[in-house]
Amino acid sequence: MTCWRRLDRWQRAGVFDRLHRVLLAELNAAGELDWSRACVDGSHIRAKKGAPTPVRRRSTGGKRAANTT
């Protein structure tokens, strides 16, 4: 539990994001990164706040029966 709490605190404090940026900067400065093979994964990109939400569509499924209990 102690390990989980520490990892959670570090994650919330941005320790891993900063570490990743520093590592990329150092590798890039040393010419050790091949940016032609880079790819962006949606799990690493935050969604813009206030972005339009998709329009809700009406369900084509049947309605649920009323609870009789």
Description:
The protein is mainly alpha-helical and 69 residues long. The chain contains two helices and no strands. It is elongated.
Strand content: under 5%
Q: What's the total count of β strands? A: 0
What portion of residues is helical?
25-40%
Low-confidence stretches: none
Radius of gyration: 22 Å
Give the integer mean of the pLDDT values. 81
What is the H-and-E element order? HH
Report the span from N to C terminus: 42 Å
Oligomeric status: single chain
- Structural class, from helix and strand content? mainly alpha
Rough outline: elongated
Helical segment count = 2
Largest sheet descriptor: none
Summarize the structure.
The chain contains 2 helices and no strands.
Chain-wise SSE layout:
Blueprint: H1 2-13, H2 15-29
Provide tags for this entry.
0% strand; 69 residues; mainly alpha
